[in-house]
Write a structure and sequence with these properties.
By secondary structure, the chain is of the alpha+beta class. It has 5 helices and 9 strands; from the N terminus they run ββββααβαββαββα. 42% of the residues are buried.
């Protein structure tokens, strides 16, 4: 039995609330159980200097945890002084979103998605990716309505979920209690069509087997399929 009482193939309670940020072109408040992340997408008519004149756009992300998103207050991170973990996660979010965007169709424009963790209980990066896609999709649909672009450059949905070995058994969507004691943990980023964008998997003690990894992957595909359906239901 898991500490939460969930079945090993059961997601936490997940909600995707579109449009909570009034001023953003796209936004989503995503909740994976007690992990809550606010994602806001901003449209920018410029691209980074190294992309100018190349005829294609860019999608990037910034990620941060609010000081009291955890049990003890964290120091607020300033840009340029971010931890290695923060930089790694925001690059992961950006890569995940770019995997489902036609950057040439975007034109020489940039979309920045800010992902701010309001409350953390494990799986903040996977929740952020899932909510960031909703915010990105809204921003692209906004641009179409404004006549900025003719059609959305988004080619597919993308979601993410964590899995791990808990008491030796494969488990889906780990909360903090499970993640902090798991024998192995993994994060999977998967498109709506089932393509793998990124897999991060680590053994915390003894190595895990091919069979155990296959079981984690199967759980992740099932979980991301559910998340993708939720994303599809709230497209606007």
């Amino acid at each position: 039995m898991r500490p939460s009482g969930r079945a090993f193939n059961e997601l936490r309670s997940v909600t995707l609330e579109p449009g909570p940020a009034k001023h953003a072109e796209g936004s989503c408040l995503v909740k994976f159980g007690e992990t809550h992340v606010l994602c806001a997408a901003s449209w920018d008519e410029t691209v980074p200097p190294w992309l100018r004149g190349g005829g294609k756009g860019w999608v990037t992300a910034e990620y941060g945890m609010l000081p009291r998103s955890t049990g003890q207050r964290m120091k607020r991170e300033a840009k340029g002084g971010q931890s290695g973990r923060t930089q790694e996660i925001q690059r992961l979010i950006g890569r995940s979103l770019r995997a489902v965007v036609d950057l040439k169709a975007l034109g020489e424009r940039q979309i920045v998605v800010d992902c701010d963790v309001i409350q953390a209980d494990g799986g903040t990066r996977t929740a952020a990716i899932t909510g960031a896609w909703v915010a990105l999709n809204q921003a692209c649909n906004w641009a179409v309505r404004q006549g900025i672009i003719k059609a959305s450059p988004i080619t597919d949905r993308v979601a993410a979920i964590s899995c791990g070995l808990v008491a030796g058994a494969p488990a889906l969507d780990l909360d903090y209690d499970e993640d902090s004691t798991a024998q192995a943990d993994a994060n999977f980023v998967i498109t709506g069509k089932g393509g793998l964008v990124e897999v991060q998997a680590t053994a915390e003690g003894d190595p895990f087997s091919d069979e155990q990894f296959a079981a984690l992957l199967s759980l992740a595909k099932s979980g991301c399929e559910t998340l993708s359906k939720m994303q599809d239901e709230i497209q606007s």
